[in-house]
Automatic annotation (TrEMBL):
GO CC annotations, alphabetized: microtubule
Species name: Pieris brassicae
Gene Ontology molecular function: any one: tubulin binding
Domain of life assignment: Eukaryota
Gene3D superfamilies: EF-hand
Ranges for region Disordered: 126-169
Protein name: TPPP family protein
Length: 169
């Protein structure tokens, strides 16, 4: 009995997570078919053979709404178990509970291999790229990317700069 209550609470938390996933305005009380399909795929219930997104769409359409609440979701799962899967209700609930809350926690992580560290070590940069970073490896921003001109009226290699007025006297 206590175990069923714990599973129910875990399932409700995961439901809220999937209801909010991808929708910043959602409060987690209702879920869309898209998010249900994502959840069922993550849990391994939608396999494309025995259970497909077409099956879930047919069942979801019976609610005549774009979103359903948790109580309706449990009815949805009951219908899915009866019509499409060979699994019983408890197996599906267990799979859904164990799938966890969605997010980017297992997203692609930054590569920290030796090759990448050598390529990103700015102390080894040469040529014009060397000018883009200071000694600590921080980027200089726009000043490191562009050659700033003095706008004095003289060309770069002119040796007698500021001598015109001195010659006239």
């Amino acid at each position: 009995m206590v175990d069923n209550i714990n599973k129910q609470l875990v399932l409700e938390e995961v439901f809220k997570g999937y209801a909010k996933f991808g929708n910043s305005k959602s409060d987690g009380t209702t879920i869309t078919l898209t998010n249900i399909d994502k959840w069922l795929k993550e849990a391994g219930i939608i396999d494309g053979k025995k259970v497909s997104t077409t099956d879930t769409a047919i069942i979801f359409q019976r609610f005549k709404s774009k979103t359903i609440n948790f109580k309706q979701f449990m009815t949805f799962i009951d219908s899915l178990c009866k019509e499409c899967t060979s699994k019983n209700h408890e197996e599906v609930i267990s799979q859904l509970s164990s799938s966890g809350i969605p997010g980017t926690s297992n997203a692609t992580k930054a590569d920290t291999s030796n090759i990448v560290s050598r390529l990103t070590d700015v102390s080894k940069y040469t040529g014009s790229h060397k000018e883009r970073f200071d000694k600590q490896g921080k980027g200089k921003g726009k000043s490191g990317r562009e050659d700033a001109s003095a706008n004095t009226g003289y060309v770069q290699g002119y040796k007698h700069k500021d001598t015109y007025n001195k010659q006239k006297k």
